[in-house]
Write a structure and sequence with these properties.
With 90 residues, the chain is mainly α. Helices cover 86% and strands 0% of the residues.
Amino acid sequence: MSSATANSVLISQYSSFLLSNYCAIAATVLFIYECLITFGDEISLFWTRRFTGASVLFVSNRAIVMFAHVFTLITSSTATSPQVRLGFAE
């Protein structure tokens, strides 16, 4: 009976893990989409003018957050691939 309980707890934790990964993937895709649709405004407002402290802060913030989101996207997609889920990862 304890084996069935342990299995149900494991399934519940794995389901929670998958849900959090899917939410992270959705947030990453939404952030990348927002960056793409506002890229023209970013060029006209920040790249064509003299660099100030605010523009450096904006560009560095955008770059750091983009790197973090892309890293999350890469690690989340490998953790939820079918080969890893079935235990057949190479």
